[in-house]
Structures are given as C-alpha cells and as structure tokens.
Automatic annotation (TrEMBL):
The lineage of its organism: Bacteria, Pseudomonadati, Pseudomonadota, Alphaproteobacteria, Hyphomicrobiales. The keyword Lipid biosynthesis does not apply. It comes from Methylobacterium iners. InterPro entries: DUF423. This is DUF423 domain-containing protein. The keyword Transmembrane helix applies. The chain crosses the membrane at residues 42-61, 68-90, 102-121.
Amino acid sequence: MSGPDRALAALAALAGLLGVAGSAAAAHTSGGETLRTAAQFLLFHAPAILTLTGFAAAGLTRGGPTRVAAAALVLGLTLFSGDLAMRVLAETPLFPMAAPTGGIVLIAAWLAVAVVACLPVRR
C-alpha cells in the first residue's frame, strides 16, 4: 500500500473514531441532534473512504482519480462535520459557510466516485 493510501486509510479510521465519539457525546450534550448529524456523516463516509483506498491499492480502479475522490470525501467531511461539531462543542463555527461548502464538496466527491467507477482500468 502506498503512502497516500495509508494516509487515506488512517483518515478514514479517524473519521470512524470521531463518529463514534461524536455519537456518544451527542447523547449527553445540548445540541445533540446537530452533533449526531456530524457523527453520522463521519460514520457513513469512513467505510466509503476505506473502500476507495482499497480499490486504488488493489488496482481495481484508476489509482489517481480514485484517491482524489477519496481525498475530496475527507475534505468535505472535515468542513461539514467539523463545522457542525464546532458549533455545538465550541459554540462557534469553523468559519462562515464551512458546512455548506463541505456539503457541496461531498456532493462533488460522490460524483467523482461515480465517474471513477465508469473509468476503464489501465492494465
């Protein structure tokens, strides 16, 4: 597994970890519904990032575009879930428009995943 694949896999694991921690915190925090949403996004996307990383590492998809799509998911999650969590836990946004920007990045990332799935693999 290449360095970028290891980094993406580690970030996916971190997303899973933060999703579990966020879910637990949501049960005990005011604003729990917002934090729960952030945690769910992290938990839903962590396996997708791991899967894309595995596809790229195994040569099942084109490595470069697949890694870009996975990295875009990481960026979108950071902005979207990070902003929601900051609003609840620190009572301040990450930065203005962080969550909507992260949501748009996530949508674009999923479109990139669809494109990657359609690209023929070079042998």
